[in-house]
Amino acid sequence: MDPFDSAYYRHHGHLTVNGVFHSDEMDSVVRDIEAWGESFLQTLPAEQRAWYIDGGVTARTVLRKLDNPHAHRPAVQALARDRRLLDLVEAFIGPGVSVYFSQIFFKPPEGGGPKPAHQDNFYFGPADPEGVVTAWIALDDATLENGCLYFGDGTNQGPVYVHFAPEGEPFNLQIPPDILARQPMVPAPVRKGGVSFHHGNTFHCSGSNNSSRWRRACALHFVSDGNSFDTPALPYDHSLKFRVS
């Protein structure tokens, strides 16, 4: 990054950096998470299906997400430790960082569901709100058609709002409509192997995947040295905190 990039992130609350990883590296991670996903589905209890199954796809059963790949998959641990990524992360939140939580998002073709606008720091409740950055790694090209991220420019400089969850979806915390209506959201396409970084306060969401192509991604939620999720809105396994630098 150069000073322009750093200033852009501070002002807008997000920054897209293409070309961090190579395409074949992303293909290798995809093969690994596909195998993990197949085994996960076979043992998924009925009471947890709403949490993990993508309700937008009716023709087949597909996963919406998987949690904490950094704790289960060496391929994702290697991404988290990679200096090409860590140099960028540490430029945002300083040297000495850990992955506190991570996710795989599948966003399958022909109906992969949207993610409503939210702020990560409401979910996480960090001790230091400035010491959290999400690195959203594009395992496929993320486009307007297949459900790229959208951001609320400058919302990193505002407060964390109390979110609500729709009935029957306690996991789907989101910003109240009256607040969101006042905030334009701008798309942020990213090429396969690129990384979209955002501050924990930044409004962000994604649309449905109405294309014929996958939009898989790996989100690594990095925290600065000594930071922790002190007042989380959902339960997190603090023992999975993974020191990477």
From TrEMBL:
InterPro entries: Phytyl_CoA_dOase-like. Keywords: Dioxygenase, Oxidoreductase. GO terms for molecular function: dioxygenase activity. This is Phytanoyl-CoA dioxygenase family protein. It comes from Variovorax robiniae.
